[in-house]
Design a protein that fits this description.
This protein is α/β, with parallel strands linked by helices. The protein has two domains: about 90 residues, no CATH class; about 260 residues, Aldolase class I (TIM Barrel). Strand 1 and strand 2 form a beta hairpin. It is globular, with a radius of gyration of 24 Å.
């Protein structure tokens, strides 16, 4: 049966848009309508769409949104003649009085060449202001022979000052042989992010694979960041599989070549189209499903579908970044430090109170992201949290990021709805069997 009731689809789409909701439609599955955060949903099967008048279907979805707005839960109306509802969270919320709110996630990016006493003071002030947040520190190592003593002293000083768990990442192509350096990286629990440009059919440099494997064998996690240009090798899946063997399955990420790349020497003039990039992500996700727990950017997309991409308490994206630049300016971003929007200067930050820093951070995030989110035509904006070039209003083309994120958000939402449906059906069947 193929759904051809376009009138009701249009009416439901308008109703959903009015409530900032999300509508998913499939000829085979029917319609699922989510609230703006992707938490609760109502399902209309294709048979129900043909069996009920349009007015009844719209009333049902309208009551769903009214219940979400009024009390955050959908009443059980299974005894009525109205359509059955699938509410993704209501049962678990009734069983657990305490609702866990995901923490605000913030990554702070600093270039290794900028490390100084002022940098340490700046970072400590930011960390104090973000004391309630899940913070990740990323140091970009761009030098072929960095001052490791200076870097390790910096990391140790920050950790002693903060007295808290703090993930630290080194980002760069690091060929380290000194045992003393490897020991420090291992003891400090530092993660290495290794960028690799994929631009031809050639195998990845054996020197790179050997270095990655040596770190992994030493006990140092190495996350591989692959940057894809217009040419996608036919053996890309085999390349990733071999790299995962080398880094002992620590994880990997895939980004368009012109996006999220810190090392300008890796960039070329080519660009991967949004369709090709999305198809690549889908292909790898299908062929290598055993890496799904550490496959970025799908890991973040799965997270926002599960827990939301928007921090409702502060009305800002739940994933945010802060960049400490060479000139002392401090910017904010969503995914790409190179697209950060200026927030403040180090001089102001060091003189301000911790409370004021946090308040001004929220104001800047809200100014840069929320206003653009309100005017966005994308139905996933509240769930996704947005991407830099869209939310910041810059002229950089964000179609690759937006289309790939939208595709997988929709895919994961369908999985969420279908899983809940099957779980509830199984529970109902078990109850019926026990009663019988």
């Amino acid at each position: 049966m193929i759904i051809e009731n376009n009138d009701v689809i249009n009416e439901l789409a308008i109703l959903t848009k009015q409530h900032n909701g999300i509508l998913l439609f499939s000829h085979n599955r029917g319609i699922v309508v989510f609230d703006s955060m992707g938490e609760k949903f109502v399902s209309l099967t294709k048979e129900e769409i043909f069996s009920y008048p349009n007015s009844d279907l719209c009333n049902r979805v309208g009551k769903f949104f009214d219940a979400v707005v009024s009390c955050g839960a959908v009443e059980d109306e299974s005894s009525s003649n109205l359509l059955p509802i699938i509410d993704g969270n209501s049962e678990s919320q009734q069983q657990n009085t305490t609702v866990v709110t995901p923490s605000q996630k913030i990554q702070i990016c600093i270039d290794q060449s900028r490390i100084s006493a002022v940098t340490e003071q700046t970072l400590n002030k930011l960390l104090d202001a973000f004391s309630e947040c899940d913070v990740r520190l990323r140091l970009f190592i761009n030098s072929a022979s960095p001052s490791w003593v200076k870097i390790f002293d910096f990391v140790n000083a920050i950790r002693k000052q903060q007295k808290r768990a703090l993930r630290v990442d080194f980002e760069g192509c690091l060929y380290i042989t000194a045992t003393s350096v490897l020991d420090q990286i291992c003891l400090l629990g530092i993660v290495i992010n290794w960028p690799i440009l994929i631009s031809s059919e050639n195998e990845i440099d054996g020197k790179v694979v050997e270095a990655i494997n040596n770190y992994a064998m030493y006990g140092i996690p190495v996350l591989i960041a692959l940057y894809i240009g217009n040419h996608i090798p036919s053996n890309i899946v085999e390349m990733i599989d071999n790299l995962m063997i080398a880094n002992l399955y620590s994880g990997f990420s895939i980004y368009p070549e012109n996006y999220y790349c810190q090392n300008s020497s890796l960039l070329s003039n080519s660009k991967c189209s949004s369709q090709r990039f999305t198809e690549l992500l889908a292909r790898i996700y299908k062929v290598l499903p055993h890496y799904d727990v550490n496959f970025s950017p799908l890991l973040e997309i799965a997270d926002v579908v599960s827990y939301g991409g928007w921090n409702k308490s502060h009305n800002i994206p739940r994933f945010m970044g802060v960049r400490v630049a060479h000139d002392g300016s401090i910017g904010i971003f969503r995914q790409n430090p190179n697209r950060s929007q200026i927030w403040c200067q180090s001089d102001w930050l060091l003189s301000a109170s911790t409370e004021n820093v946090w308040e001004e951070f929220l104001k800047k995030c809200s100014l840069v992201f929320t206003e653009n989110a309100k005017s966005s035509l994308c139905q996933y904006v509240n769930l996704c949290g947005g991407v830099d070039s869209v939310c910041s209003g810059t002229k950089i083309d964000a179609s690759v990021e937006c289309e790939s994120r939208s595709f997988f958000i929709e895919s994961f939402l369908w999985q969420k709805a279908l899983l809940d449906y099957h779980v509830k059906n199984s529970a109902t069947e078990e109850n019926n069997e026990s009663v019988a």
